[in-house]
Structures are given as structure tokens and as C-alpha cells.
Amino acid sequence: MSEIDAHQSDAHEPPVTPSTMAHVLWQQLPYIVALLLAIAGVAYTNVSHQPLVGYWEFLALAIGVVCVVTKWPETEGREGKIRLIWTQALHWIAVLVTMNIMLVSGVQQLLPMPATGLVLLTLLALGTFLAGVSLLSLQIAFLGLAMGAAVPAISWLKQSIFFFLLGAVLLIGLAISFWLRQDRRPRARSTETKHQEEA
Fold first, then answer.
1. CB 170: neighbour CB atoms within 10 A?
2. What is the dihedral of CA 114, 119, 121, 126, to 10 degrees?
């Protein structure tokens, strides 16, 4: 009897098809795009040495809209939907005000320009994580955690780029020397066989 139940439960499980995978990827697309835009903003700030004030404000507003849109179908009643809009609006206004405080000229004099991008990404990551916690949304919370993890990763990569270059030169040198050794061995063996044939 248990085998029949197992076969029936297997029959009821839908197989994983490319269309279901595409649907899952489509659902995760806003979070992936937001993370890529945040990292691109930090990279541009580090290269151009100019803070992208409007860019960070747009990104914060876009993530706020994503928070509301993803929770809208789960929210019941008119009051619940109004509460969702107001709480998210206040939350993201607070994040925007904090970002603009970091961009005040007096504060800017204390921070180097590349650090400004990392500070703004940190504030955006914190705001996103707290929005995910308040909405009980794992995707939004994980997006905030991923943005937060990108901050030390970007600074570490920037500081250790010299060591990466040295490592690359070392690996290239080892590869060339290994290739030259492999190239010389057949020649040495062929000259030894020629001497043996002549003798």
C-alpha cells in the first residue's frame, strides 16, 4: 500500500522543466538587477571619483518599489495595502535622508571619494535588509545581505589588486618555465638517440 502511495505522490509532483526554471529566474530578476546595479554604481564611483547622488537615490526608490510590488499580492484589505505603502515610504525616505547626510560637503571632506560609494552601498544594504525583515521576505533580506557582503569584497579586491597582479605574473612565469622545460626534453632525447644511432 505504501508503494502505491509513493507512486501516486511521485505522479503528482510536477517535473522540473525549462519553463519552470525560466519562471523562477523571472521572479528573481528584480533582486538580481538591483544587486548588479548597486555593484555597478560602486565600481563607477571608484573609477570616476565622483559620487552618483541621483543614481543611489534612484536605486533606493527602485528597491522600495520592488518591496511594495512583491508584497502587494500577499497583503489583504485596503488598510493593509495602505499600511504597506506608508511604512515602506517612511522606511525608504529615512534611508534617502541618511544617504544625503553622507553627501553633505562637510561630511564629504572627511571621506575620500571611493569610500563614499561604499558608504552609500552599506546604507542601501542596511535599508534593504531591514525592509526584508519587516516584510518577512527572504529574497529582500538576502538582497540586503548580498549588497552588504559586496562592500568588503569590493574594498578587498581594490586593496589586493597589486597582489593579484604579482600572483598572475608568478603563474605566467611558472607556466613559461614549465613549457620551456617540456619543450627542451624532446630535443635532448632526440639528440641522444641520434648519438646512439651514429655509434
1. 10
2. 170
CA angle at 26 for the pair 149 and 132, rounded to the nearest 5°: 40
> Domain map of the chain by residue range?
2-159, 161-199
How far apart are the C-alpha atoms of 26 and 138, rounded to whole Å? 16
- Residue 82 CA: distances (Å) to CA of 77, 79, 86: 9, 5, 6
Of 137, 125, 149, 144, nearest to 27 (Cα)? 137
CA separation (Å) from 178 to 81, 174, 185? 67, 6, 11
Cβ atoms < 10 Å from Cβ of 122: 17
Start-to-end C-alpha separation, the chain: 84
Closest to 38 (Cα-Cα) out of 146, 133, 134:
146
Q: Is the pTM of this model over 0.70?
A: no
Grid coordinates in use for 139? 529574497
Tens of pLDDT, residue by residue over 139-180, are 888 888 888 887 777 667 666 665 566 566 666 766 666 666
Task: Give the integer Cα–Cα distance in Å for 188 and 13.
Answer: 65
Residue 53 grid coordinates: 547622488
